[in-house]
Write a structure and sequence with these properties.
about 350 residues; Rossmann fold; five-stranded mixed beta barrel; 13 helices; 10 strands; elongated
Amino acid sequence: MSIEFFIRLIGMIVLGIAGLNLGIHLAGLASDPPELWALILTMVGALMGLILTPYLTTRPATKLRDYLNRLPAQQLVASVVGLIIGLIVAVLLSLPLALLPRPYNTIMPIVAAIFFGYLGVSTFSTRRRDVFELFQGRLPSLRLGQAEDGLTPSRQVLLDTSVIIDGRIADISQVGFIMGPIVVPNFVLQELQHIADSADVLRRNRGRRGIEILNRLQKDAPVPVIITDTDFEDVDAVDEKLILLAKELQCAIVTNDYNLNRIAELQGVVVLNINELANAVKTVFLPGEEMDIEIIQEGRELGQGVGYLEDGTMVVIENGRKYIGRTINVTVSKILQTSAGRMIFARPNIN
């Protein structure tokens, strides 16, 4: 039995009893037999309780929980502090307000609590960076004012469809390079499902791989994986939705999509591109250094041979065609950085 169904039953019973009492009361006023009134209003009350109870209890609570999950920790702390300070001010003002004539001595303290509570939340929420910077020097543990300008261990990251299908994100998160919660929007899940249901075999396999990677993340990732229902109905493109959501959550997007990377950066969104990470951690060789490389195929130019390092870096060997199938010692002559990655040019050390 789900919690929502249980709440519906409770609401049906409560409003049914309320309808019964109301029916008996109305029957007494109309001098009619109470049975008919009680039966009708009991059924109406039970039906209203069955239908309306979730909209007044569980669904608002769920929306509030989802909103609090998306809310940055800094903003949440500032809002709570602002609410407390606003209520303290309202309590202090309730003493003179209680001296007002009736009914103002009862109404005005409530109005003051609502007004100053809202004022405290809105003020501290909008000026949270200034508030935390005010205490930054005195309380080093509250240095949250820097969270919006950079990545922190508690900051969320968004995953796009391409990086989930790629699969390397599971290994990256496993070794601790991603320290904040991982957020996967529901519209990204829908796109994954659409790809997995494609008629094209290759595309279908990619979608299924993405779903498997996401399941692996949820089971093995050392940080929480959050599925959010936040959507932007007036926007169709998934990339645009990701950028809007990243702005709303004030978090980074993890991707390997070149176009999304550039568009997000133009709009001021932090992007973590795993292709750039892979290029950054590749083994560095300087001109003049030696290495052993297996030549596996011909190069584009006459006489060239091509081999690959363990990290996938291409090594082009001058006059290396005749050594195809052999592992030889070479000297690095030049390193070329391209948009596709790093290429190394070398010459054989065999006389």
